[in-house]
Each structure stands twice: as structure tokens, then as C-alpha cells.
Amino acid sequence: MSALEQRLQSALDSRASRQMLRALDPSPPSSSTLVDFSSNDYLSFSRSTVLRQKLVDVVNDDATPLYGPPSSRLLDGNTPLHASLERRLAAFFAAPSALLFNSGFDANVGLWTCLPGPDDWIIFDALVHASMHDGMRASRVPRQRRRAFRHNRVESLERVLVDIVERDVGVRKGEKSVWVGVESLYSMDGDLAPLPDMVEVLERLLPRGNGHMVVDEAHSSGLYGPRGRGLVSALELERRITVRVHTFGKAMACSGAAVLASPLIRHFLVNYARPLIYSTVSTHLSALAVSKSLEMLEEGKSDEPAAHVHALAVRLVSRLSSLLPPASSVSLPPHLSSIITSSSTATAAPHPPTSPIVPLLTPSPRPLAAFLRTRGFLARPITYPTVPRGEERLRVCLHAGNTQREVDGLCEAVAEWVRRGERGVGHDELVALRSAEPLQAKL
What is the pLDDT of residue 117? Predict the structure, then answer.
């Protein structure tokens, strides 16, 4: 074995010994009979016959190019289709302009790498996505001017901002910018950011307009706001947020992302965002798929599915709250206790307090996930390093295609696991539990 092979194998062996080894699932939900409580297909658009027909119709048009262009956007890739899609996205999301990226990861890395200047400050929620962290680390802002605040704690954000304002005269004079990175809906905890309070603090402490909030709406697209425009639109904060990132790979069942910002920021990204400059543009077929999914939102075809998802969330939280004993090995996080167990919660204004992501906290997420498979349900275990040690959980993702009966069945299976424990599981189930792949969900 070469030195390279020894190093790689040693690293993998070390991760395996700590039960941190990631592996590709040999039986994804699309090829199984398991009920999907795992994917990010929140609106179940990937199975929509209406969306399928929309795409088939445009694909069957002989005048419609499907493949290529085999070039970057700045060379031969700035096609009329991509440009028109950006204009539609900007209009739909009530943004001054939009810029397409091949993924949400690319969008976050691209904008965080180049927008903050070397004398600026970066503040971020401690639980933001890995792509934000990668972009921030690659930015021109030195480590000592990159500060985290406690997750969703407005008072923590305020303390960090006050400290920066007091110590940096350039910030006080408005000569330096402060960039604040948050998500509207967090993928691990399933909780919503208190955006109005955060914006108020930022504007109050930086009255010269040098505070800039960047909101990643990856998980809220399609589920909140008019026609699924996201949490920022639901709260009517479009004009007070500097940059929004909407991705297409979750509720919209496509791939890619759009950065929504001013035309000046868009022009700057075109010149400095390396993931855009040095990547081949998405194919015509991919852009067509996004345009047809966007058409579904424009026509209001996300309204009913989104309402159903929020109603299922209320049912799931309510059922689990009643089935799980107080000192259970599986518990719901505290923020879910505020959800009122009634159907009116799903339509609360200005947006539902629920989310499609419901984490079940447990020190044994992998055995629980494997047990649920034996009962016909697919939900993913989330362990370190995806989440901090001691915060392991099973993540349940709800979809418009799920039924109340499926949600009830999942709750009963979780309660059965708690009641029986591994000692009460039969031989065949134990084999399934112990042979289960150590799956790891992405951030």
C-alpha cells in the first residue's frame, strides 16, 4: 500500500471507529417501497404529473434546445433562456435582479468569497450551512473579524454588533460594512429565523446603512409567503435584505440557485464570483425544468401542497407530544412546544410557525432509523460532525405527498421503539439494525 493509500485508509478507519463514516445509501427512496420522510422534496413536485406534463410539452417542441451550451456563462453560455429565467425570478421574488448559479453551494461560496471587503466584518448564525462557512473562510475578511452569534438569539446578535461598533470607528462612521449571514429555515433544527427582530437590531445599531443581511432561503422556498416566495417575502422584508439566495433543488425539485440582489451586486458577482466565472453554465434542459417549476409557483400550484405540509407538521408534533413519555430516549426540541396543536396553526399570519423539518432528539439515531425502516419508513439519522456531539437526532422531513395515516404510522413506530427498546426487538429486526449503513445526512 502506497503512502497515499495508507493515509486515506487510516483517516477512513479512524472515522469508522468513531461511528462517523459516511456512505452512499445503496437503496434510495426512489427505488424502494419505504415512505419518504427523508428527502427535501417538500412540495412533492418531483412526482407531480402536472409539472411533468409542462416539461414534456416544452421538450417536445422541436424549436427548443435541450443540451449545451458547453461553455461558461461569460463565454457562450449567456443564452436568451438563462437571461429570461433570471428576469422571471427577479420579478417573482420582487427583487431588483437575479443571477443564476449551478447550486446553492456555489452561490453561497461565490457571494461570501467576494462581497465582503478586507476591512469589513462578518457575523453569522452559529448553525448556518457549510457552504456559508466555506465562503466566509475563503473571503478577504480575516478570521478575527468573523464572529458567530448564538443560533437564532437576537440578543446574542446585538451583543456582537455592539462590540464591533464600539471597537471599530470605521464601522461607526459607515466606512466599513458588516455582513450578517443567516438562514430563513434551518435544515437541522427546522426552526425559523426571527428576521424582523434581526433586521431591526441591524438597522438601529448601524443607521448609516452599512449593515447588510444575507438570507439563505434554500429550505423556505415554496413553503412560505405568497405563492411560495419565501420567508422574507412573507414578512415583507424584501427591501431591507441585501442578498437572498433561493435554491431549486428542494421544494422546486430541480437543481441550481439564484442570488437576488441589486444590479450593482449582480454585476460585481459576474466579475468576481469564481464559481460562476469558471463553471460551465447549466444545460438548457435544466433551465427549462426550473422555468416550469417556477411556473407552478406563479400559478399558485404550491399553495395547497404547502398548506398540507404545515398541517402534517402540526399533526406530527401533536401526536409525538402525546405518545412520548416525559423522560423518553426520544424527544422533541423545545422550540416545537410553542406550536399550537390545532388546524388553525397551519394558516397563521403572516406565515405558519411550522416547518417541514421535525428533528427527533435521541442518542441512538442510527438504530432508531434502522428500526423505522423495518416498519416501512425512511428517515435519516444525523450525527457528529453534521451536528455537534450530544445533539444527535433523527430528522423527519414532511412532504405534500405524505398522508395523515403515514404520519400517524411513523409516530406509532417511534413510540414503539421507545417502549420496547433494543432489548425488546426481535432477532430479524436486530439483524436489520446492526447491518444498517451508518448513513449521514448532508447539511
Answer: 97
